[in-house]
Amino acid sequence: MKKGQMLTNTEIASFCEQMAMVMKAGITPKDGLAILLSDTKDESTREILQTLLKSSALGETFTTSVKSSGVFPDYVVNMIAIGEETGRVDDVMQSLSDYYEHEENIAESIRSAITYPFIMIVMMLIIIAVIISEVLPLFNQVFEQLGTQMDGFSGSLLALGENLRSYSYIFFGILFLLAALFFYVTKTTKGGHLLAKIASKIAPLKRFYDSVAYGRFASGMSLMLGSGMGIYQSLEMVSHLVGNEEMESKIIRCRSHIMEGDGFAEALQKEHFFSNLYSRMIALGVKTGNLDSILGKIARIYEEETDRKIRNFISVLEPTLVISLSLVVGLILLSVILPLLSIMTSIG
Question: Is CB count within 10 Å lower at the N or C end of the chain?
Fold first, then answer.
């Protein structure tokens, strides 16, 4: 934890998990914070806990203490406030822990899906750059000794390699920009939003991000309804969590349908949120009073589906990139070796 900066999903999940345990044991938030502080060695984490404990010692509510620390998202603050109103702070903290752990799993899956192809592409660029800038000149010396020169495709590659050697700083600058872009989209919130916005315009990636958004919707609704919040208010809060503009618009229209007298299940059906199976499950959950549990199950299904899509993507991408690299390298070498063999045959 770093004081003054928003906590990561993992840090929030860990904090909420520990606070849930002490509260379920009948320990007050103030005493629970003191216990956490005594067990913490990290200096920045201690500073945050000391801020929370100091606020609690002044008689502030747990919600006020968390808000005044400035390191928790508004969503966490609002959910804790609801928990205090309903007397279910311990349950809310446990649900928040599960939610942010789920969010971190999604983020880690997306990072994994981006990291592997990024590394492979960079390696491909470096290998190709080494071949055309270092290996082809050696072949060119052989051609010159035989009284000829490289022409055609191989000659163009040789010229490109010479330019690459002369302007190598540009090549390394491009690699640096690619690394900076990779860091931006995988390590920052704004970068993640930018990636999602771009991906939503590409059909195959759009289906993946839609699946992520539906999972977030189900997970968020399950958490809020389980904390005692009403459906209409839950829809308002979850619209800020899905990270998908199209989904946000659907949620807003769902709220309008509910205002006009429709039930929750009917509103979701009108906006084509889920398949018929999930819609029936939600309608049954409304009737039986187990809506939060049903939505939790749907969220887990979407999480498993997301993981499966990423695994399938990587399983297809890995051989594709390897084959592509092999073909490119093979084409470059053949463009040199075949003319060289022809010359050697004619001499012989």
Answer: C
If you search the block for the tokens 């010692």, which residue do you land on? Answer: 57
**Mean of per-residue pLDDT scores for the chain:** 82
From CA 56, how far away is CA 30, in angstroms rounded?
6
Distance CA 291, CA 222 (A): 7
Q: Are 23 and 89 in contact (CB under 8 A)?
A: yes
Residues sharing a CB contact under 8 Å with residue 93, sequence separation 6 or more, in sequence order: 16, 17, 19, 20, 23, 80, 83
CB 232 within 8 A of CB 252: no
| Cβ atoms of 66 and 77 closer than 8 Å | yes
pLDDT at 57: 85
DSSP for 186-219 reads HH-HHHHHHHHHHHTTSHHHHHHHHHHHHHHHHH
Amino acid at 8: T
Instruction: Tell me the residue type at 127.
Output: I
Query: pLDDT by residue (tens digit) across 275-329?
Result: 888 888 998 888 888 888 898 889 888 888 887 887 787 788 778 878 887 888 8
